[in-house]
Amino acid sequence: GAGVTSPAREAMRTFLMVDDRDLLYRAGLKRELQPVTRPQPGIPVIAPTEPWEALLGYVSVQEVGDKLMMWYQSYAAKTPSHPAVGINGSDCFVAVAYSSDRGETWTKPLLDVYTSPSGAKTNAVFSPSPSFYFGSVLHEPEAPAGAQFKMVYWDLQLGPGPDPSNPTTKVPGLYTALSADGLHWVQQQEWG
Q: Which uninterrupted H or E stretch holds 79?
């Protein structure tokens, strides 16, 4: 009828689909694969540049407003030439970067979400435990307040032990966290 807008038409977005992660079904979908190119061949899009970054991995990128946000796992390696600068008691955490030029250059903001042992600001935004592995972030701007950003990750956290003589045990599993801004995260369940 007049004045009725299709929710599908309102929700039209462009996705980078190498796999079917963002697809519920594929009826009528046409996939066009484009060659992958780096903005500057031979130079990483993002590289370790901060004292708390020795190795980067597990990257997740989402379009947020007029910019791209990238979350990535960062390791503060312990080597004789690179002493570890841990975050929140861990040498492994999620950091964030922004791009306003479609991913050609990335800026690592200095935030006070997690600070270095010396108190310096970092771009670290999540560090639930020393045993975690970052997974992926999904941005859904239409989600309820506080849940516009969703993160899934694997972790090994302390939980209640099955034996009364051992009050805690490590509980492995998939965990989730929610955020209103992609920077301040709240773990959703106590154990995975």
A: none
In whole angstroms, give the CA distance from residue 147 to residue 177: 9
Residue whose token pair is 């801004």: 181
**DSSP state letter for 139:** E
Q: How far apart are CA 123 and CA 108, in angstroms?
A: 6
Give the integer Cα–Cα distance in Å for 106 and 103: 7
Q: How confident is the model at residue 1 (pLDDT cuts 50, 70, 90)?
A: very low
- As a whole number of angstroms, the distance between CA 63 and CA 14 comes to 10
Sequential DSSP letters for 5-59: --HHHHT------SSSTT-S--TT----------SSTTS-SS---STT-SEEEEE
What does the alpha-carbon distance between residue 111 and residue 38 come to, in Å, rounded to a whole number? 28
Radius of gyration of the chain (CA): 19
Tens of pLDDT along 116-152?
A: 877 889 999 998 887 888 999 999 999 999 999 999 9
Enter the tokens of residue 165: 């003589």
